[in-house]
Design brief:
Length: 738
């Protein structure tokens, strides 16, 4: 007669759930929640739990817990449906179309990964697959949580309900689940500040893992508490009357529950004698308004004598996790110290429900509380710092997260999307990871609100804000600054797309810059003979242009070309020295100040003593000294070659103005910093001009006085090494073009 299943019979009604939701969210979308409820009931119909109860009662109770903690309708729907992807025919598309992507992401976050195991695999293989699946699922869960904390609240509520309903399982399985709860989920609840969950999970696991200790502890605490409660009850009544008399009848006074596991840890692991665990009972006073906390404190002191020095005001000075409360200790009945906490209802919810309460107050636009975004940012940062935290109780979680986070970093877009990157990645990698079009147009970035150079390495939990410009394009240097192969291949693809002429000029400029950084003269090093040899030794290259183009396309690195160049140049140099200055003894030696009216310093290239210079004999205006690589001089070499003469210019005590162009991160005080560096190098600043560029950088044109080329080089190195400086160049070709 009795049919196999009578599902609808003992399925829980939605009323309780709706009532809990309405407490925090009076205007919630009841129809949508009921639709979710119905979907869960239908999807799980016919399924029962180990206990024989309809399966759907499990997600319904998980949803109730989530609603209790103040989370919204979407979270409640996700909790109702948290097992459907794993265990039923419902598809992600069904959920997406009915409830949107937020709900879908939350459900996907808590869904365990499926790692197929061959049916003929051994027990060991199965166990290994299971532990891989557990680790990978945890990793996925942590990532989903980083994006949306609500995911973890659902997972913890799920675990709580499972822990409460373990009876039907074998002892071995119960112990395994309890161990995992203590190792992983309770520490996570603690990190998220959800004390309510942490305590319950710990006590439930304690009961399963150490049943004897649990019941002993429970008896002793109950006995000792009932004795103290009796002692206290008279004075609590007096306090309550006093509160009522002063118009604070709505303020509640309650005993503070102490959870057994923490007493057990104190007593057994930290070896504190049971009699000395005084705070078995403590009082908590919950008010509506902040000022009422202080009124209540005054009334407390009328009844009990405060113990000096044991008062803390965390309302005016919240703890870094946003915790607010007044703490005081008084002499209770019998002279035993009695701990009292006083706070408002909202402060209490944050203390008990942590991130869940922060989240719900943020959504409801309550700004009387500590900024929730700061709390989220702090939690995210912490989440990824677990592996470094020795105080963390769980070795297991520490090792899992250190595996998880040692090879990868996790950073966030301003919207809170998680971007995972190989450890050591820079802003450039981040940008290309978001989208290659973003990477290609990247011009600047901030990390956690601070402007930083593009070469900055990303750290776990950083919030990275990228700046792009439509006509910007990647620089060749980025191949060096990017650390992931993904970024480099994207960069190369982009650089290859540029046309050949452009690639040649980019490549050549990059090589010239590098040669100059080595203190060598590109004109000399990049001679046709040297470049020809480089080309012949480089794959797919015949002439110098091929090499430039390959560099410009990012196929071969600037460094590899420059290394080869340097080697060849060094080999050839001895010969060159024999050949080059035809008659070196005929060099005109100029020493120090050019007081000779017939010898002038070229304004275009601003040469200084000690560097490679040549003289140009003008028609009637004497000799003008140019740097050998000055483009103007090079033109004259072609048109007026016979008027060029060797010059050997030696330094004395005279100084010469030289223009420098410095590009650096734009921020306050940058000119000051640069002038300090210059002053330390014993040079004078004779003029400076700052131009702010749109991409958070600034260009400084500065004119300084140096004594010779060594002095100048030393100065340029010092400025170049300064952290915010992007480039330092000599202002070649500025001034008159004669
Ligand atoms: Mn579940």
């Amino acid at each position: 007669m009795a049919s196999m299943s009578q599902p609808a019979d003992n399925v829980l009604a939605p009323d309780n759930l709706l009532a809990k939701l309405a407490e925090h969210w009076p205007d919630f979308d009841q129809e949508k929640v009921l639709e979710g409820f119905q979907m869960a009931v239908e999807a799980h119909s016919g399924q029962t739990r180990q206990s024989g109860e309809p399966y759907v009662n499990h997600p319904i109770q998980v949803a109730e817990t989530v609603a209790d903690y103040g989370l919204d309708a979407d979270t409640v729907i996700a909790a109702l449906l948290h097992d459907v992807l794993e265990d039923t025919d419902v598809t992600p598309e069904d959920i997406q179309s009915k409830f949107g992507s937020d709900v879908l992401h939350m459900i996907e976050g808590v869904t365990k990964l499926k790692i197929p195991v061959a049916t003929d695999s051994t027990e060991r293989q199965k166990a290994k697959a299971e532990s891989t699946r557990a680790a990978e699922s945890l990793r996925k869960l942590l990532l989903a949580m980083a994006q949306d904390f609500r995911v973890m609240v659902i997972k913890l509520a799920d675990r709580l309900h499972n822990m409460k309903t373990l009876d039907a399982f074998t002892e071995a399985k119960q112990a395994r689940i309890a161990r995992e709860t203590l190792d992983i989920y309770a520490p996570i609840a603690s990190r998220l500040g959800i004390w309510q969950l942490k305590w319950q999970l710990e006590d439930l696991a304690f009961k399963i893992l150490h049943p004897d200790d649990y019941s002993t502890m429970k008896d002793r605490v109950a006995k000792s508490r009932s004795k103290r409660e009796q002692e206290l009850s008279a004075s609590i009544e007096v306090l309550q009357d006093l509160l009522k008399e002063k118009g604070l009848g709505h303020v509640t006074v309650m005993g503070r529950p102490k959870h057994l596991y923490s007493i057990y840890v104190k007593h057994v692991k930290q070896k504190v004698p049971f009699d000395e665990i005084y705070d078995l009972i403590a009082l908590r006073i919950i008010t509506e308004q902040t000022y009422e906390c202080y009124l209540a404190l005054g009334l407390v002191y009328e009844i009990w004598k405060p113990i000096p020095g044991l008062y803390s005001d965390y309302i005016q000075n919240p703890k870094s996790n946003g915790y607010q409360s007044l703490h005081t200790k008084v002499e209770g009945p019998g002279g035993d110290p009695l701990e009292i906490q006083i706070r408002t209802k909202k402060m209490h919810e944050i203390a008990e429900f942590g991130v869940a309460a922060h989240w719900s107050y943020k959504e409801q636009g309550d700004d009387a509380l500590p900024n929730p975004d700061n709390q989220f940012a702090r939690l995210r940062k912490q989440l990824f710092d677990w592996s470094k935290d020795n105080s963390m109780s769980s070795d297991f979680l520490r090792s899992v997260s250190s595996d998880l986070f040692s090879e990868q970093v996790f950073a966030f877009t301003p919207k809170g999307d998680v971007i995972d990157l190989p450890a050591g990645s820079t802003i450039i990698d981040f940008a290309f990871r978001v989208h290659s079009r973003i990477g290609e147009r990247l011009v600047g970035a901030t990390i956690n609100g601070k402007i930083v150079p593009l070469s900055t390495k990303i750290e776990n939990g950083d919030i990275v804000h990228l700046q792009t410009r439509a006509n910007a394009e990647p620089s060749l240097d980025w191949l060096r600054l990017a650390t992931s192969s993904h970024t480099r291949s994207k960069l190369r693809a982009y650089l290859r797309k540029r046309n050949r002429a452009e690639s040649i000029s980019h490549g050549k400029a990059a090589i010239e810059r590098e040669v100059r950084n080595l203190g060598l003269d590109p004109r000399e090093v990049l001679s046709a003979a040297v470049m020809k040899e480089v080309a012949q030794n480089t794959r797919d290259c015949v002439k110098a242009e091929d090499v430039y183009a390959r560099v410009g396309e990012g196929i071969i690195s600037v460094a590899s070309v420059v290394n080869r160049l340097r080697d060849i140049f060094r080999e050839q140099k001895p010969d060159e020295e024999k050949l080059a200055p035809v008659e070196p003894q005929e060099s005109t030696v100029v020493s120090g100040g050019i007081d000779n009216v017939m010898i002038k310093r070229a304004r275009c290239c601003q040469p200084v003593p000690g560097e490679d210079v040549q003289g140009y004999v003008t028609r009637g205006r004497g000799i003008v000294i140019h740097r050998r690589l000055c483009p103007n001089l090079q033109r004259l070499v072609h048109t007026d070659g016979e008027r060029i003469m060797p010059i050997d210019w030696r330094s004395d005590s005279t100084t010469y103005p030289v223009g420098l162009k410095i590009v650096m991160i734009d921020r306050q005080g940058l000119l000051m910093d640069i002038t300090v560096i210059i002053a330390e190098a014993k040079a004078n600043v004779v003029g400076a001009k700052i131009k702010t560029l749109p991409n958070h950088t600034a260009e400084i044109d500065i004119s300084i006085e140096v004594s010779d080329i060594n002095h100048l080089k030393e100065l340029m190195t010092k400025i170049g090494n300064y952290s915010d400086v992007l480039s330092v160049l000599r202002g070649v070709g500025s001034g008159s073009r004669k």
